[in-house]
Amino acid sequence: MALVVPDVLEEGCTTRQALERLASKWRVLLIYALLAGPQRHAELRRRVAGISQKVLTETLREMERDGLVHRRVLKESPPQHVEYELTALGKSLQEPLAAICDWAARH
Fold first, then answer.
1. Which of 67, 84, 100, 106 is 20 to 30 A from 35 via CA?
2. What is the pLDDT along the chain (107 residues), one digit of tens a residue?
């Protein structure tokens, strides 16, 4: 089977669009954090060093829109309790990200 290399330099390339969405360091770090299972906002903020509350909230919303994260409300009344977990699509990134970690460790 031949390796198909997409033309990622073209704006309409779906691979380019995926790379642009995943290129954010916060997205990748949040995916790693959520691979451990569902977590609440405060847990994620503690685990992902350096991320601000605003950026965490924005990134989780974007990831939810992209179908990578599922947001579940645990308690409706204030203060609201919300939990985030990876969707099947989000979990499917585990293997490609592991390959990048392996590459980084070797080089």
1. 106
2. 566 666 778 888 888 888 888 888 899 999 999 999 999 999 999 999 999 999 999 999 999 999 999 999 988 888 888 999 999 999 999 999 999 889 999 99
Which amino acid does the sequence have at 60? L
> CA-CA distance, 69 to 38, in Å (whole number)?
10
Q: Are 9 and 16 in contact (CB under 8 A)?
A: yes
User: What secondary structure, in 3-state letters, does 15-83 show?
Assistant: HHHHHHHHCCHHHHHHHHHHCCCCEEHHHHHHHCCCCCHHHHHHHHHHHHHCCCEEEEEEECCCCCEEE
